[in-house]
């Protein structure tokens, strides 16, 4: 492959795709970041690297290399459509004051948020401060921000960041077990801050409920939960198909995640249920959230079987062996009679897709595949021969990152809600975060107790039962 090498601080890429599902040779990297679909290259986002452009595809790419050099935009009908879509997503004038962000926790996900917000800089956002007690994480984030020419104020903890008064919005991307206290401190702080908190909302249902109750007293604050899988283009397309009624009344939802084991974290805090909430909370809250969306109803009871069979069994921390499960089957029954099923395996690196979703109604069936980014749609009437295969893309995505562009769209949506100044609610609110955790906790308890566990049982206090009704 012929490569042209650029040592530029910024590379802006505008791609006109040819509709092909193949990603071979069609990629470009930016300093500290990667745009494209080669998974083996994705970790370059935190390590820097030279800027590369595939010469074979220069005819398909409008590329500008260098600080402030944007090149000529192609005046096409497609670009006009994109601009109209952007205006719809941002009803208020873009000349408003810059929205200033602070990021609490700048490990892998914190840096992912930093990069996504950098790609939203033309939307009027800036990250102005970070907080993290872990010095190596601080330094990597600082190096990254310097490549963006974003000077950051650094604090050792979230209280110091809040007291600085520097930011309007706070992103919480700290270890799961810290979410509760940090959220309560933000919500109770005199100056209001809008909040995007990484999933899970908290590690226990009780902590989630306390956060929900506290936030009710601060209606001027928007809080969105980072269940960004809703925004993955094939998943979003399937949600649209379901909501349009193309499948009829939904009866069954099946979600398979076959993937690699949990990644290394600072001190590997994610190896224990007490820190993460357990695999079915930490990882699978995404899928329980999607089940609820597809089913169009709230969960009633959960039955699960799972175990620790392969991963982390040879690891020891302070004399303790990790207890997070690495595989499970989970069945969920919903109020409207529909059923959901999760098939989780975290030692399945040999899978073509990490996520496969099937939604079946009384009229038809829809499927979504990630990272293939395709959707299949068929009806009972037309049968197998007329199943459609659709390529799912979203032209708004400027950075794919670790989650196929969903984090970028998540930030775009939340920014729109912030600018709407109370007119528009966050797409994923605290209620959604609470229910997704409750479903995960119920599944974990079902494994431990060997029986169905009801959601009411998990909620366990009558005054909070209305939160899942």
Automatic annotation (TrEMBL):
InterPro entries: Gfo-Idh-MocA_inositol_DH, Gfo/Idh/MocA-like_OxRdtase_C, Gfo/Idh/MocA-like_OxRdtase_N, NAD(P)-bd_dom_sf
GO molecular function annotation: nucleotide binding
Gfo/Idh/MocA-like oxidoreductase N-terminal domain: residues covered: 100-226
Ranges of residues in domain Gfo/Idh/MocA-like oxidoreductase C-terminal: 240-454
Extent of the signal sequence: 1-21
Keywords (A to Z) from UniProt: Signal
Keyword Endoplasmic reticulum: no
Lineage top rank: taxon: Eukaryota
Name of the protein described by the UniProt record: Gfo/Idh/MocA-like oxidoreductase N-terminal domain-containing protein
Originating species: Camellia sinensis var. sinensis (China tea)
């Amino acid at each position: 492959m012929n490569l042209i090498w650029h040592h530029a601080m910024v590379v802006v890429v505008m791609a006109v795709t040819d509709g092909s599902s193949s990603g071979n040779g069609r990629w470009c990297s930016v300093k500290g970041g990667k745009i494209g679909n080669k998974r083996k290259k994705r970790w370059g986002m935190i390590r820097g690297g030279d800027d590369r452009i595939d010469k074979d595809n220069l005819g398909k790419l409008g590329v500008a290399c260098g600080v402030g050099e944007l090149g000529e935009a192609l005046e096409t009908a497609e670009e006009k459509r994109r601009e109209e879509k952007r205006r719809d997503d941002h009803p208020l004038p873009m000349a408003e004051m810059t929205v200033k962000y602070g990021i609490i926790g700048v490990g892998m996900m914190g840096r992912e948020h930093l990069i996504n917000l950098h790609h939203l800089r033309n939307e009027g956002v800036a990250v102005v401060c970070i907080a993290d007690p872990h010095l190596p994480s601080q330094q990597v984030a600082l190096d990254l921000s310097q490549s963006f020419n974003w000077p950051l104020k650094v604090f050792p903890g979230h209280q110091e960041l809040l007291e600085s008064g520097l930011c309007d919005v706070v992103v919480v991307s700290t270890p799961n077990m810290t979410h509760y206290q940090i959220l309560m401190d933000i919500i109770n702080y005199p100056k209001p801050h809008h909040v995007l908190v990484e999933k899970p909302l908290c590690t226990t249902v009780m902590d989630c409920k306390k956060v929900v109750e506290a936030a009710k007293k601060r209606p001027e604050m928007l809080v969105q939960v980072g269940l960004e899988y809703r925004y993955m283009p094939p998943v979003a397309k399937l949600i649209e198909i379901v909501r349009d009624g193309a499948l009829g009344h939904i009866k069954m939802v099946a979600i398979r995640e076959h993937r690699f084991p949990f990644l290394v974290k600072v001190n590997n805090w994610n190896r224990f249920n007490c820190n993460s909430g357990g695999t079915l909370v930490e990882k699978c809250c995404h899928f329980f959230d999607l089940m609820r969306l597809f089913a169009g109803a709230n969960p009633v009871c959960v039955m699960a079987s799972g175990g620790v069979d392969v991963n982390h069994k040879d690891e020891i921390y302070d004399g303790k062996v990790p207890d997070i499960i690495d595989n499970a089957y989970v069945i969920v029954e919903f109020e409207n009679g529909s059923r959901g099923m999760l098939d989780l395996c975290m030692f399945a690196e040999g899978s073509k897709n990490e996520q496969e979703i099937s939604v079946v109604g009384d009229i038809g069936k829809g499927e979504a595949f990630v990272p293939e980014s395709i959707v299949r749609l068929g009806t009972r009437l037309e049968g197998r021969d007329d199943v459609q295969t659709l390529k799912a893309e979203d032209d708004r995505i400027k950075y794919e990152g670790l989650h196929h562009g969903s984090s970028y769209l998540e930030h775009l949506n939340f920014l729109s809600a912030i600018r709407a100044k109370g007119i528009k609610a966050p797409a994923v609110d605290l209620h959604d975060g609470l229910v997704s955790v409750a479903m995960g906790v119920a599944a974990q308890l079902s494994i431990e107790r060997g029986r169905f566990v009801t959601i009411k049982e998990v909620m366990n206090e009558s005054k909070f039962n209305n939160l899942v009704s």
